[in-house]
Amino acid sequence: MSEINDLTRGSVGRGVWSMAIPLITASFIQMAYSLTDMFWVGRLGSESVAAVGAAAFFLWLCNALSMVCKVGVEVAVAQSLGARQPARARVYANQASLLAGVIACAYAVFIWLMAPRLIALFHLAPAIAGDSVAYLRMTVPGLFFLFNNNVFSGIYNGQGNSKTPFKILSVGFVCNIVFDPLFIYGWKGIPALGTTGAAVATVLSQGVVFSIFAYKLYVRRSTLGKLRLVCRWRARFVRRVTSLGFPVSLQNGLFAIFSLSLATLAARWGHIGVAVQSIGAQVEGLTWMTAAGFSTALAAFVGQNFGARDFQRIRQGYRYTLKLSGSVSLVVTFAFLFLGRQIFGLFVQEAETVSVGNDYLKILALSQVFSAFESVTAGAFSGWGKTIPPSVTGIFLTGLRIPLAYYLVTLPLLGLNGVWWSITLSSILKGCVLMTWYHRFQRRQCG
User: Which DSSP category does 412 fall into?
Assistant: First the structure.
């Protein structure tokens, strides 16, 4: 049981940091997968970036679906361990993995069959659309890996052990760095696959990560006891995992769909609009991936202390994490305001794309602190097992971006920038509303 980190005792700051640092680093590694693809694909031109970017929205949706199992198992395992019931935590781990495999296979079939119609939503030039469809279909074998890798990370996170997923994901990232240029540009008998090569590299890297996770959890003895790759379906536990994870998954799924709608609106300005939003969303991950690490750490911290019924410690952990995430997001804010051209110049060389990207980052800079506060507060709610409040806030106010964007782009001085302003304004609102909601909830629970 040495890999289980008891977050119900000791320093609050040390408990949060012990979880947060590996999680934040792992989050950056996850983001770096996409950034590495964008870096190498960007050398092929902004048309290739648009092709990968269009397909990426449906991989984003896949990641959102995996949150059903990942968030559910994180919270269920954390609360079970906080209540000193490791056998129950083991059952949740088995059932979440089984559920992930079922959803992954269903989504893989959907993507393979519907890829041409999905990419057609962007109205890209035929050559760009063809590359995008090929890229999307090439990712299908990796969907099973993606789903289960997220669940495996969640199993460890619920135990308060974020170091093991970090180490395993690091191996996958190194593999992706090596594989990307090999398959995109070719080398010594390996054919140059262009944009499709980026998908091959990512799938192979995810496969390596899956193999390491599976060995540690199913071949060796897990710290939760013996886990089973194939087990009997236990509806009561599956319902609990689903009830915890579904609101977060729905929020993330609709977030992806709303972003897809904004991308199709940005596509009215040609492939540059799609390319800028694709790269910009990855760069903005500097804030929300960092905040996601703090959020997951706080969810495990709150979950274990909720199981132990230590409400004062929960209050302290939330305040501490909020200060940390706010400090980091301020650094990102200044980087976006003053280094936008240099940041976008790392991915594309076309002057017009860099100029539009600079505007994107300056506008999004205003909302970075609020985005961080929203994510951390969502983690606090999740630890309590209350995943509906952040989902309701996220779904409603993110959905507000669509009508707001369609209005703002009609204003003479905004145009395409109206899309970016709709993102910033809604993010500010989400942060303010969710924090207010949580403070009222916490007062009722903790007194």
Answer: T
Closest CA to 78 of 15, 134, 142, 29: 15
Using a cut of 0.90, tell me whether the model's pTM lies above it. no
For residue 1, what pLDDT band results from cuts at 50, 70 and 90?
very low
Question: Any idea what the Cα angle at residue 183 is, between residues 179 and 187, rounded to 5°?
Answer: 100
Instruction: For 383-442, write each residue's pLDDT tens digit.
Output: 898 888 998 998 899 899 999 999 999 998 898 999 999 999 999 999 999 999 999 998
Instruction: Answer yes or no: is 279 within a domain.
Output: yes
Instruction: Indicate whether 6 belongs to any domain.
Output: no
Tokens of 447: 């007194």
Rounded mean pLDDT, 21-39: 69
Residue 307, φ and ψ in degrees, nearest 5:
-60, -35
Is 3 domain-assigned?
Answer: no
Q: Is residue 254 part of a domain?
A: yes
* Distance separating alpha carbons of residues 47 and 437, to the nearest angstrom: 43
Q: Higher-confidence residue: 56 or 328? A: 328
DSSP notation for 342-391: HHHHTT---HHHHHHHHHHHHHHHTTHHHHHHHHHHHHHHHHTT--HHHH
| pLDDT value at 14 more than 70 | yes
108 φ, ψ to 5°? -60, -45
| Distance in angstroms (rounded) separating the CA atoms of residues 341 and 314 | 41
Q: Which domain holds residue 331?
A: 12-446
